[in-house]
Specification:
This protein has helices at residues 31-39, 74-78, 87-99, 148-152, 173-178, 183-186, 220-224, 239-245, 251-258, 299-313, 318-321, 324-350, 371-375, 379-389; strands at residues 12-14, 26-29, 50-51, 54-58, 65-70, 83-86, 109-111, 116-120, 125-128, 133-135, 139-141, 159-172, 189-194, 200-206, 211-219, 261-271, 278-279, 282-284. By secondary structure, the chain is of the alpha+beta class. It has two domains: 12-18 and 112-158 and 274-389, 3-Layer(bba) Sandwich (FAD/NAD(P)-binding domain); 24-88 and 159-271, D-Amino Acid Oxidase, Chain A, domain 2 (2-Layer Sandwich), CATH 3.30.9. The two termini are 25 Å apart. The strands form five sheets. Strands 5-4-13-14-15-12-16 form a seven-stranded mixed beta sheet. It has a three-stranded antiparallel beta sheet with strand order 2-6-3. It binds flavin-adenine dinucleotide. Flavin-adenine dinucleotide binds at residues 14-17, 27-28, 33, 115-116, 142-144, 148, 166, 168, 215, 266, 286-288, 294, 297-301, 303. The site of flavin-adenine dinucleotide has 27 residues, from strand 2, strand 12 and helix 10.
């Protein structure tokens, strides 16, 4: 960011890789995330979303539908729909909207193959593995669950490997049709098997209904004790191994698994909330600040909200109101309680589907996180309140 008050903000994104290894899996953005995508002018329709309409619970062994929860019209209730994307599609559109010329401010500069190895939070200096370095007024560290910047600003995470891990896989619509499983696409639903205990299958369509994506959760001990042995955390596995992991599962779902592509293992870690997110000119954002379990489908949504907060606080007039340090303090006060609340709800939902937003209501259990709290959140109002309190 430039230091002159009237200069437009200039943003450079440094990425350690070159995006060649993007994962094939779905990413759902409930209204609290999708509203920022729309606000930023991301071409959401070019990311080929499926608009999710319902949650369906299947019996684990027979596959019979046990319950259906209509999600209602998210657009009329919360102003933006509940989108389900293929991760690569939404990533491409985010990249395009940030780096193309048109827009309110100058385009973002992207520098790939720049792995940050040293960060001086007070001076705002970043040094990269390739020998280059840069200085900035503000450093937003969105370097994921294994964030190096987090350690460099003095945070030692208290974390443990989860007792759950997951396989993810995808399958094309043509294949599903040939297997007589096309209802898995046309339901426009997130469909579940299990979810009370560690085992759970979560399936949803994306890419305009051309792809179906599955997350298959199971006990970590099963993988460690399996034939994979020492190679337990090699990233790929076979359809046969996938099916063997869920031996008593619905035969239709097993048919999908036997024909699935790109089956990868996903290790899960449970991190306690960190003591702070900001130091000097640095703030943490996304999984670097609040890694969570995937069971609320809110990890990216929280990253989108964090980015929305940075945008609201450091708008083009921010220097008239406060400096970078005060802005970052405001960011932490705005974001940390909210993201921590969702992070904790994600831990509860890992082994209890009733805790997932969208299933049942707050009257089930006092303190249960509701869809209204998550999707109806009004960040602008929250921010104004904090500014008045300050
Ligand atoms: C099984 C599973 C399913 C999920 N499903 C959903 C879902 O449906 N909806 C949802 O909202 N969320 C979902 N999530 C969560 C979501 O994927 C994450 O919360 C999200 O990707 C976090 O984004 P991020 O940008 O903070 O981190 P990341 O996506 O991890 O990105 C970090 C980036 O920083 C780069 N990087 C790291 N270190 C450095 C360095 N030193 N220098 C330069 N660059 C660096 C990395 O290469 C990477 O590109 C799911 C997660 C899991 C595990």
């Amino acid at each position: 960011m430039p230091s002159r008050m009237d200069s437009p903000l200039q943003v450079t994104v440094y990425e350690r890789y070159d995006f060649a290894g993007e994962v094939g899996a779905s990413l759902s953005a409930a209204s609290n995330g999708s509203r920022f995508l729309e606000q930023w002018g991301v071409d959401v329709s070019a990311a080929k979303p499926v608009i999710l309409k319902q949650l369906i619970m299947h019996d684990w062994s027979s596959g019979d539908v046990q319950k259906t929860y209509p999600l209602g019209d998210y657009k009329s209730k919360f102003n933006t729909p509940y989108y389900n994307f293929h991760r690569i599609d939404i990533h491409n559109q985010l990249l395009k909207s940030a780096t193309e010329e048109e827009g309110e401010g100058p385009a973002v500069t992207l520098k790939v193959n720049h792995k940050a190895v040293e960060v001086n939070a007070e001076e705002g200096v970043i040094r990269f593995e390739n020998g280059s370095q840069t200085t900035a007024d503000l450093i937003v560290a969105a370097d994921g669950i294994r964030s190096l910047t987090r350690e460099l600003i003095g945070i030692t995470p208290n974390f443990a490997m989860s007792s759950s891990c997951a396989y993810r896989c995808i399958i094309g619509a043509d294949k599903l049709r040939s297997l007589d499983l096309e209802d898995y696409i046309s339901n426009e639903a997130i469909e579940y098997w299990g979810g009370f205990g560690i085992d759970k299958i979560v399936m949803s369509p994306c890419s305009n209904g051309e792809v179906v994506s599955c997350y298959c959760f199971f006990p970590t001990s099963k993988r460690l004790g399996s034939d994979a042995g020492e190679n337990a955390w090699a990233s790929s596995t076979t359809p046969e191994q996938l099916v063997e992991t869920f031996i008593d599962l619905d035969p239709r779902m097993k048919k999908l698994m036997l024909n699935a592509e790109d089956i990868k293992v996903w290790r899960l870690y449970r991190h306690d909330p960190y003591p702070y997110w900001v130091k000097g000119k640095v703030c943490l954002l996304g999984d670097a600040a609040h890694p969570m379990m995937p069971d609320q489908s809110q990890g990216s949504c929280m990253a989108f909200e964090d980015a929305g907060a940075v945008g609201l606080i450091f708008n083009k007039n921010f220097r008239n109101d406060y400096g970078v340090g005060e802005g970052l303090e405001l960011y932490e006060r705005l974001r940390k309680p909210r993201a921590t609340q969702i992070q904790e709800a994600s831990f509860r939902a890992r082994e209890d589907l009733n805790e997932r937003i969208g299933w049942s209501s707050s009257s089930d259990r006092p303190g249960k996180l509701t869809i209204e709290e998550v999707c109806g959140y009004k960040m602008e109002e929250h921010l104004e309140k904090l500014k008045i309190e300050a």
